[in-house]
Write a structure and sequence with these properties.
about 350 residues, alpha+beta, 4 domains, three-stranded mixed beta sheet, two-stranded antiparallel sheet, about 10% strand, globular
Length: about 350
């Protein structure tokens, strides 16, 4: 390990093309020894970094540490504001100690704090956060692994950024429409458009107000591919091109997530002994807030309980996934209420 990390050097090379001459020239800096970190661009480098920071969660006792590659997030939870403030202070000290022991320096400019709270107009004194005597600033929203999260847990910001990306893809498809065949255009849709819709849809796809904007763009994209005007209904086109509607895509991804991970498998027959018609349905935990009702687990159970019994009874995941997709392609649901009503 020592021989892998030591004795390495690196330099910077810049290619330059002179406007007066077509010849390209390269300029290189002098070599400098790498004294810290792992070699950039190496296969083993990311693994060594993960091994290096793997004990960080054990060093912070009052918070949950979420690690993903080089992205580190600290989650501190408490119902009482004073207790939350105390936990925050302790966690910051524990972080400082860990960074000091491991000879690491945190980039305060790239470190942001998000204070989750309800959607009401309440003004709450947020705990002040310091690391190495430098203050960490709060932000109203941030990008977390490609998903925009706000302090009031609204998905409006994420959908706003998603719409911008989708509109750029619409322009791409419109430009390619006269240059490529229909099968290729359909492949472009799946690669560039639907891939954006799929990402994180199990979290933001349960809303009805904001996602209608996204759904309108999806229908616009389909009409572009089909070459029809905006007055033509495109419900039948979803089945023709074997494309899931936005609502069907949300149902598909959520049910596949629930079924694949088996994170919740309690039926009503496990809760009580009554011989009811719904005894084989998954048990829904009682909740009073709309946020809880729209959570991935709660919505996933409701969607699962409304599936046709012949699909729910399928044991093999690949077969379940295929049958579910065929069912959703056939129905082409526009709204969640439509799914619950038809089943």
């Amino acid at each position: 390990m020592r021989s892998y990390l030591t004795g390495r050097s690196q330099f910077v090379e810049i290619d330059h093309v002179d406007a007066k001459s077509p010849n390209q020239k390269s300029f290189s800096s002098s070599c400098k020894e790498i004294k810290y970190g792992v070699p950039q661009g190496s296969v083993l480098g990311p693994l060594l970094f993960l091994m290096f920071i793997n004990d960080l969660p054990k060093a912070v006792h009052e918070a949950k540490v979420v690690l993903f590659a080089d992205d580190t997030n600290i989650l501190i939870i408490d119902k009482n504001l004073k207790s939350l403030n105390d936990k925050t202070i302790v966690s910051m000290h524990q972080l400082e100690n860990w960074f000091a022991v491991n000879h690491l320096i945190i980039n305060i400019e790239k470190t942001k704090a998000l204070f989750f709270q309800g959607r009401g107009p309440r003004q709450i004194d947020k705990p002040e956060l310091y690391l190495n005597n430098k203050k960490i600033t709060y932000t109203a929203n941030l990008k977390f692994l490609g998903i925009y999260i706000t302090e009031n847990l609204s998905w409006s910001s994420h959908i706003h950024h998603l719409v911008q990306k989708l509109n750029k893809t619409i322009y791409l498809i419109k430009s390619l429409r006269d240059l490529v065949s229909l099968p290729i255009l359909r492949s472009v849709y799946f690669a560039k458009f639907e891939s954006l819709l799929r990402y994180g849809i199990i979290f933001w796809g349960c809303g009805q107000k904001d996602i209608q904007t996204v759904f309108k763009i999806q229908k616009k994209c389909l009409r572009l591919i089909k070459r029809v005007n905006n007055r033509i209904s495109c419900r039948e086109f979803f089945g023709e091109f074997k494309i899931l509607t936005l609502t069907s895509l949300y149902i598909f991804e959520t049910l596949c997530f629930l079924r694949k991970n088996r994170i919740y498998n309690i039926s009503y027959s496990d809760v009580h002994g009554y011989n009811t018609v719904h005894k084989q349905n998954l048990y829904i935990q009682p909740c009073n807030t709309s946020r809880c009702k729209r959570s991935v687990i709660n919505m996933g159970i409701r969607l699962y309980n409304n599936l046709p019994s012949q699909i729910r009874s399928i044991q093999e995941f690949k077969v379940f996934k295929r049958q579910l997709k065929d069912y959703l392609l056939c129905k082409a649901f526009y709204y969640l209420q439509e799914y619950f009503y038809k089943n």
